[in-house]
Amino acid sequence: DSGVTQTPKHLITATGQRVTLRCSPRSGDLSVYWYQQSLDQGLQFLIQYYNGEERAKGNILERFSAQQFPDLHSELNLSSLELGDSALYFCASSVDRTSVDEQFFGPGTRLTVL
Amino acid sequence: GESVGLHLPTLSVQEGDNSIINCAYSNSASDYFIWYKQESGKGPQFIIDIRSNMDKRQGQRVTVLLNKTVKHLSLQIAATQPGDSAVYFCAEEYSNNAGNMLTFGGGTRLMVKP
Questions:
Q1: Which among A19, A39, A105, B93 is placed 20 to 30 Å from A87, CA to CA?
Q2: How many C-beta neighbours within 10 Å does residue A108 have?
Q3: Which residues of B touch A106 (CB under 8 A)?
Q4: Per-residue pLDDT of chain A (114 residues; tens, 9 = 90+)
């Protein structure tokens, strides 16, 4: 158990819908990262938040957004869902923002868009 | 459930043999490298890391080798066990004022035959 929690574990929805994925980082970790893992593209970095502020952006679509709240939990919002958005979405956390250190991954949310 | 890409290179080894998984990284500015293990239906799990000022690091049954000249990373697993069966990802990380950027390789599936 990494100490990172994600809910829900599974999510099934229809095209065009909007969903929210939730992540709670390890106690004491200030940085939260979101990743998408699809069958054909592996693990792709989406976005990083540090202490409530966006810090780095990766391959995140404009239909996707995220935020980190004062209690440091984070939410990833996916809107106008398409079939190709079906994937595993992982959240990871680490202690710091700029020092290179280990990221701890949550168990993931499996999103299925029908 | 299936959690990673279908078209991964696969390494098949006999139980008790040593395994070597290779990875080529892309960014010469990367200063931290991590090997992750991902079992089916789970998030990536940290195995071992190495910083760019080192060329070898040993853990329990695992060794990581870093060759910065050719941007190559390898993971050696001694006395491979059935529980080692998983997909292994290398990841390179560099940090700047914007945050930590972690880029994953495509993954290698390790299958251990009893």
A1: B93
A2: 24
A3: 43
A4: 889 999 999 999 999 999 999 999 999 999 999 999 987 767 898 999 999 999 888 889 999 999 999 999 999 999 999 999 999 999 999 887 555 567 899 999 999 999
